[in-house]
Every structure is written in structure tokens, then in C-alpha cells.
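Recall the central idea of this unit: under ordinary conditions, the amino acid sequence of a chain determines the structure it adopts. In this exercise we apply that idea directly, starting from the sequence alone.
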Amino acid sequence: MRYGNGPPILSDLTFALEAGSFHFITGASGAGKSSLVKLITLAERPARGTVTLFGQDVAALSRHALPALRRRIGVVFQDYRLLEHLTVIDNVALPLRLTGQGGAAVERPVIELLQWVGLGDHLYAHPGTLSGGQQQRVAIARAVIGRPSLLVADEPTGNVDERIAMRLMHLFEELNRLGTTVVIATHNMVLIDYFGYPRLHLDAGHLERQSGPRHSEC
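Accordingly, the structure predicted from this sequence is:
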């Protein structure tokens, strides 16, 4: 992967993630973690090579087929990408409403989730009035509300304290137990060591190693 005519950001990466697995993406700042997240979530296309999601070669899909594929992916970007003109509750409800759901079938689970992540007092606030950590939790709630087949999060605990970070990680684990494949890009070694999931480690755009759970490593 490269941006424009610049040098490769990622090169010679080959890996597969089993359905229902949980992985960390690790690496120093600038190693290519965010770029890999963009490839996995279809925000960018590779300059060469193949990206296969849910058994489908992404490059072979028509432009009209991509939205349906993207709806199966929950994404938490570093810049949150919340809609400023919508309230917190409407931002989080958006993935459900895009599938045609409405009324209490949407409102009840959205409110419960926002209360669980500590935002029950901010349901009708707009993103611009929230702190960075609060906006991050809104973005995470929006990403998980539809129980996606794949959840990809880029530094999802970067702007929250340790207590909230652990709560969010347990939310990701619960989603994983329900069958969602979870991929988290992070530099938080405390979380990585505590949870011990397999990790893909990037170094200067290359996949340096692919390690298994901590308890199985030498």
C-alpha cells in the first residue's frame, strides 16, 4: 500500500484471520498500523496484492456491492468520524437505522449501551460538546451496536482512563464471544499483556512476526 506516488507504507504482508478470532495489531508509531486498518476496513485499496473479506476478493467486487460488505464491518477510527449535526443517541443508532430498523427496537439497545459505557447523561448532546474520551466511547458504541461480523478499532482506548479502557476491552470480548472477529490496533502493552490475544506486529511497514497467545509463547 502507498499513498499517491510516495514510498510503500505496507509491503509483502501475508496473513489470514479466522472468523471469530481476536487479534491485536502492534508496532511503533509510523509502523503502518493505521494503514493496515484502512485496508482491512475497505477505506483504502491496495496498490497491489489481494484483500479477501468474508470469502470475497474485494478488488473483484463492483462499486455497488461494496456498501453491503462495509455494513458487516464495525470501525473505530482515531478521528472518531462522528456526525456533528446528530446527537449522541442518533450517531450510535445510525447503523441500525440504515438497515431499516426504527422505534423502540433501536432506542432501547442504544440507550442501554450508552449507559454501559458511561454516557447515559449525554444522550442528546452533540459530539462537539464532548471531551475526546467521550467522543471515542460514542464512536465505539456506534461500531458495536449492530453486532458486526468484523470489528476493527484503531487505538480505541487511547483517550480514556484505565477503568474505562478495561470496560471497553470487556465489551469487545463479549462481542467476540457472540461471534464477531475483533482486530484492535494499539500500542498499549498493558492491555496486550493482560489479555494475551495473538498479535500481528508491524515494523516499518512489514509484518515482523505473527505471534500466538501470550501463554503459548516461549
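The longest strand covers residues 206-211.
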